[in-house]
Design brief:
single chain; mainly alpha; ABC transporter involved in vitamin B12 uptake, BtuC; two-stranded antiparallel sheet; 4 strands; globular
Length: 335
């Protein structure tokens, strides 16, 4: 008698593969359905859905950058501080009257510079783990934000600089302030570009190869050090771009921005199916992970759950996600 597994394989349908690929999206859908059933008047409102997308745009960019690092079995603890440094640099330049096209480039440029320092420091100094290098730049970048601002927020950005963080398109359908955020378009464009880079270019394949087995990648002729520098520069670039969106949304640059957000970015990547052990992770999974984090926080807020309980619940989600990653790795090693 043919068992159910044999039948599913014979029919060409693999439940385990299906859940591995689409399980995270099912979780997002279930969460939305539950919240819609509990608070349909609030959660399903166009304004609330718009707020979820706008509030998590910067986190999405940080998580996309973190994905590239985690695929190589690395980590970047400096992204929150890099985002803050980008924000205050943008705000200072905008207040000083620097032409807005140049201001828009300053944030990503700051991120690229910090990413280059991380990559070069990691490879040239031969540090045992990226944790050490990026922990150092976390403190350096955060210190610089306080140094250049004297610890005070800098506000009053040019309208063009605020646009990406604040604008939305209502298409004549939604009542203000609801609609499609301009920041979502930025995130979508970056996600598509990163997906193409990781899956359709030789550099992207090299990144996965390094995460799978760095020694084998080096033996096969891949310039591992060079690729790692590019990886951390990509992560820094996304952190700088996240700073641009957040500066626009808040109309300011403040030195306390992004404290602890690197942990949310890491959590979103792991929840989205990437592995701390490297060689695994997708752009779609990361975006789903960000949505889970954003919907969870939003759902807790609209149900008036204490901020202290929110921290506890999100901490539990992170532990569960990492444990699932460990179980997944054990299963792959057995096979």
């Amino acid at each position: 008698m043919t068992n159910s597994t044999d039948q599913s394989e014979a029919s060409g349908f693999n439940m385990a593969k299906f859940l591995e690929t689409y399980g995270i999206l099912i979780v997002v859908l279930v969460m939305m359905l539950v919240l819609a059933a509990i608070r349909p008047d609030v959660f399903l409102s166009a304004q609330n859905l718009t707020n979820i997308l706008k509030q998590n745009a910067s986190l999405a960019l940080l998580a996309l950058g973190m994905l590239v690092v985690i695929i190589t079995a690395g980590i970047d603890l400096s992204v929150g501080s890099t985002m803050a440094l980008s924000m205050v640099t943008i705000a200072i330049a905008s207040r000083a009257g620097v032409p807005w096209p140049l201001v828009l480039l300053i944030g990503p440029a700051v991120g690229l510079a910090v990413g280059w320092v991380n990559g070069v420091g990691l490879t040239w100094l031969r540090l045992p783990h990226p944790f050490i290098m990026t922990l150092g730049t976390l403190n350096i970048a955060r210190g610089l934000t306080f140094l250049v601002t004297d610890g005070a927020p800098v506000s009053g950005l040019q309208p063009e600089v605020r646009y990406l963080g604040q604008a939305y398109y209502d298409f004549g359908i939604f009542a203000p302030p609801a609609g499609l955020p301009a920041s979502l378009i930025v995130v979508a464009a970056c996600a598509i570009a990163l997906w193409f880079f990781l899956t359709r270019t030789s550099m992207g394949r090299h990144i996965y190869a390094i995460g799978g087995n760095p020694h084998a990648a080096r033996v096969s002729g891949i310039n591992v050090d060079g690729v790692l520098v590019v990886v951390y520069m990509i992560c820094g670039f996304f952190a700088g771009l996240a700073g641009l969106l957040l500066a626009g949304r808040t109309d300011s640059g403040f030195p306390n921005a992004g404290i602890g957000i690197e942990l949310d970015a890491i959590a979103a990547v792991i929840i989205g199916g990437a592995s701390f052990f490297g060689g695994r992770g997708t752009v779609l999974g990361v975006l789903a992970g960000v949505l889970i984090m954003g919907i969870l926080r939003n759902g807790l807020n609209i149900n008036n759950v204490s901020a202290f309980w929110q921290q506890i619940l999100i901490g539990l989600v992170i532990i569960i996600a990492v444990y699932i990653d460990v179980l997944r790795r054990r299963a792959s090693l057995r096979h």
